Amino acid sequence: MRVVRGKTFITSDLTVDEDLDFLTLYQAKRLASPASGEALRKGSAEILNAEIHAAAAIAYSKLNLTGAVKAADIEAAAAIPLSKLVNTVASMSDLTNALINHANVSDAHQDAPTLISDHAGAVDPHGDRAYTDGLVPTIASKASDEAVNNSETLQNDDDLVLAVGANDIWLFTAFFRTHGPSGNANIKYLFTLPSGGSLEAYGFPWTTGAPHTPADGTTQVTLNLAADTIEWTYKKYLYIGGGTAGNVQLQWAQLAATVEDTKMKTGSYLLAHRLA
Description:
- There is one protein chain.
- The protein is mainly beta.
- It has helices at 22-25, 92-101, 112-118, and strands at 2-5, 8-11, 138-141, 146-149, 155-164, 169-179, 187-192, 198-202, 215-216, 221-223, 231-240, 246-254, 261-264, 269-274.
- It has a domain at 138-274: Jelly Rolls (Sandwich), CATH 2.60.120.
- The strands form three sheets. Strands 3, 4, 6, 8, 9, 11, 13 and 14 form an eight-stranded antiparallel beta sheet that branches. The protein has a four-stranded antiparallel beta sheet with strand order 5-12-7-10, with no helix packed on it.
């Protein structure tokens, strides 16, 4: 340290016992700038959070803060632990950014429909109605042709199947795009269900008259195919669960076993909405 006495500068090393109140016993007229890498601080205590605020001896303006707080700074082992942050969201924009940017936010179900339906805060901006599964359709479709050759035995379609819950209610459309080379084999089809479930097949009256009476969707239906022609079949179904989960499965085969490829073609689909 330096001690000023008159116009003479005396420089000496001073060791102060830790019990000595140096600042009370001595009056420092002037302090030289600390040497590079050193600093002057009363005592050896750590700077505490309570000392750092606008009205304190250590004001914010005296802190050399540069740059923004980064994600790497905010963790349990960092200088700014997570516990020091106030976990609030001021606006929907903040919420959106938090969900997009936060690495720990994930969809445990791995699909958007479940995430939306399970989230109580998801609302319809047009009516403030909670989103439900029924607004998000389930689609089972054929990405390639499936053929049956020389067989009258009903078999599960590879693609046209719906997984349903124990007491679910589903409304779905079935669209079949079919082809037979000769028109001799034709197609027979039906749906199989979980135990206790029921399936109504129905349409709409296209002219004035009585409403359509639904058929049993588990009863075999025949499609008479024209020779070498792609044909469409379009039907509506209502499935009502009976306490058992499982699959609503399309089964089909040739009506008359014929040595030719009878096909359920690409683009056939089931388009379903869960109502309850």
